Each structure stands twice: as C-alpha cells, then as structure tokens.
C-alpha cells in the first residue's frame, strides 16, 4: 500500500503542477528561489520520513489499546467503519492544525510552511521535518484510541496529501464549480485566505479536507480571495533554505 500511496501522490502532484501552469489563477514570482527552498524542505522530509515517520506509525498500529472485532473490518460494515475513521482523522487533523497556530512551540515549526510568499503545489510539501515528525507522533493518539489498521492510516494520508496539493495549488477553477465544490471540501480560494499575511485570516480556515469543521467550530474566515493579497506571515519575510531549517531552534 505504501507503493500505491507514493504512485498516487506523485501522479497527482505532477498533474496539478502542470495544470496550474496551463491554467494559473495568479501570476507566480519570476525567481525560482522559492521553488528551490520548497524542494529543499521536501527533500529533507523525504530522506528522514522512512527512517522516523514510517517506523513510528507502524509501532503505533502495533500498540493499540484494543483489538477490533472481525465485523468491523469486513463487508459493508467495514466500508462504513472506514468512512467513519477517515472523518474522525480529518477532525483530528483540524484540531492539530489549529494547535499549530495556537501553541507557540508548535507554531515555530509550522511557521516555516507559512513563510512561503506564494501558493502552488510545492507549498503543500513545504514543511519542516520537525513538524512532520511531531504530527506523526501525535497521530498515535487516534491510532491507539480507535485501534486504526495501518491500511486506514495509509488511505487517510493519501487522501490528505492529495487534498493539500489541490487546495494549495495555483489552479484556476470556474467560479460556479469552485463555489459548489467549496461547500464540501477545501478549495484553493479558501486556503489562499488561510495563507493571507494578515493574522486574523492566518488564524482561520484550518480544515484540510471536509469544509464542515470550520463552520462547526467557528473558524471560518469571511474574507474572500483576491489575487493581490499578500501571502505569508504578517510583518515578516521568507528566508533562505538553511535559515528556514534552523528557524524553529533559535531566534527568528
């Protein structure tokens, strides 16, 4: 399943990367510097994840609090339980994302992602490896409580990454189509506002897949996307790759 996940994510990334250049919503920066930074951070994650994140997740799956009965994994009931598991993991991811914005030590890691001053598919993979490891560690909580099978975790991670690639993309969508889509899932226009370099917008629109959580928990921003919005973190600028990597460990 890990191979299937890698293939799906890579194909989806390539498709969106090409599509957003054929039908772009906003004009990207001319300099390739940000693409180099984003690729560098992604490379670090790719190198360390098999050594840390994958074993950590496997360990968690093998140390759950209880064992699921057979009826929960077979037939129609298994499909329903899988859907419920994915919804609960999405809810967990919502609150985890919200914590990354509210807890100062977690924000130091997450700020690396928000320092990007433009949004496209590469922004979706621009994360500090410390955040990736911490998120994997904290995901052990729902894994243990819900007794999640490894297959369920992999399915969710695949859906989550593909959703993130989509809502970070610079893909131009028809207004009516995006408006209809945004009633169910997060679209580029919604997530664009989350990356607006105004803190009240940065601290909103936290959901990753299902749009409902921002409505239920009062974190939806009323701001509408404009293509001239400044993207990034209010009052600060992006940094070179090495300084981004070291940023959570010292002074900004």
Mean pLDDT: 94
In what range is the share of β-strand residues? under 5%
**Element string (H = helix, E = strand):** HHHHHHHHHHHHH
* Overall tally of domains: 1
* Tally of strands: 0
Brief description of this entry?
This protein is mostly helical and 252 residues long. It has one domain.
Structure explained in plain terms:
- The chain has 252 residues and is an all-alpha fold.
- It has one domain.
- The chain is 60% helix and 0% strand.
- It has 13 helices and no strands.
- It has helices at 2-22, 33-48, 53-61, 75-102, 104-114, 129-138, 140-146, 150-168, 175-181, 188-194, 199-202, 212-216, 241-246.
- The longest helix is centred in the middle third of the chain and has 28 residues, at 75-102.
- The mean pLDDT is 94.
What descriptors fit this protein?
single chain, 252 residues, mainly alpha, 13 helices
Secondary structure blueprint with pairings:
Layout lengths: L1 H21 L10 H16 L4 H9 L13 H28 L1 H11 L14 H10 L1 H7 L3 H19 L6 H7 L6 H7 L4 H4 L9 H5 L24 H6 L6
